[in-house]
Amino acid sequence: MLDDFMVRAALAGIGVAIAAAPLGCFVVWRRMAYFGDATAHAAILGVALSLAFSMSIFIGTMAVALLMALTVSVLSGRGYAMDTLLGVLAHSALAFGLVAVSFISGVRIDLMAYLFGDILAVSRGDLAVIWGGAALVVALVGWRWSALLTSTLNEDLAHASGIDPKREQLVLTLALAITVAVAIKVVGVLLIAAMLIIPAAAARPLSRTPEGMAIAAGVIGTLSAVTGLRAAYVFDTPAGPSIVCVAALIFLASSMIKSFKPAR
Amino acid sequence: MSLVRVEDLSVRYGARTVLSHVSLCVEPGEIVTIVGPNGSGKTSLLRAIIGAVKPFRGQVTRGNGVKVGYVPQKLHIDETLPITVSRFLKLPGGVAAADIQQALTQAGVPDLSGAQLSQLSGGQFQRVLLARALIGKPDLLLLDEATQGLDQRGSASFYQQIESVRQDTGCAVLMISHELHVVMSASDRVICLNGHVCCEGTPAVVASAPEYRALFGTGTGGALALYRHEHDHGHDHGDHTHDHTEAAE
Q1: Interior CA angle at B151 toward B147 and B157, to 5°?
Q2: What is the model's pTM?
């Protein structure tokens, strides 16, 4: 079954959707959308470094994404507005990454594959990495779920309950770095944030509890991955962007449901 | 034995000192109110007591096994986070449904457990926060301007609720309030804070203290009253600069 590239692609997409769902909810709740973007954009620098030192792309991107996320956490609240800081860091990381890639001689790499993903070329090894990473993210977020939720609601309430919000922030940062490293093959660095945010945002009007929203986001993400791949096959469109397009359409539909229903 | 004892506490944010040499303690069952102008370090003091800020100097000690319930100043629930009142009260976990119902009843909102948090009115929300603080059956309740944003009737009934909670459970209350008329009628003890403890005592004592009058006026034209700080009331000035006079003039 895994011999079919479409099956492997679908499984890869589902793996990313599952990892992105609970994490994406926190990104939306904590207003970290640009934070996710910056972390993802930095990954292209990780790609360049991995190729230069011929190490695993997964390790390289994860390390750089983690470094980026930590840099943002440390620098935040030191004189610059958060969106300015993220704008500077995200785009410089992307630019430095692109420049760094051009220095790598002897290796001809398909940059497009890293910017927009190359889900149809997912190998069995990639699949193992994606599902392994997804399992790790779900386990991490699941393990810290209540503490994360409490510190998302209010940091002082978290302190009063004996939870250290900084530690929980670190857990999220780590999960984000893993997700970026895992998703780069599937949707590419430019669209990773979309997989985090759009399914979660689409799930919001359909949910009454945080857990419900995470599960709904997972279902919507999975649906987007499978439908997007199918659409890419039928219409001969790029696979990663097609997945994001489907997610966006689901978001549109769910927003319309919300406006026809009384607020709840 | 005091429930909580703050000794010679100083708190700094970077180079800025917000609290210096603050000492106080809260005894079982009493209502203590902290008053003081904006930026006088009231919230920092409560945050230091719950452990959210590290003291720069001095220490905060809780009595053995003393449980603290905390009602934060204001809590913005993002519209994107769907959560019911009962789920919110369960966080971070391990609370029985019966305890939640009891806390909601004590806080005066027994019917709200199924409501979405983001749909509550200001008064309902503050009561839900109060319920959350009551769940652990605290010996000490910390309230940080719990009636901010409520109208006069709303805040009066909120303070009545606090009083009845104290009568029911016997817990002590340490609260910050801007509403001086409430403070003066409901507190056993008042602490006037302005980076340091200016004066403290029963409401009557504090109301007649020159430091308090300097900060809040004597009633008429109080807002314009200059802060003529008297340097003979015997608190330790230590190494912090005393800039009230400068600021007021």
Answers
A1: 65
A2: 0.81
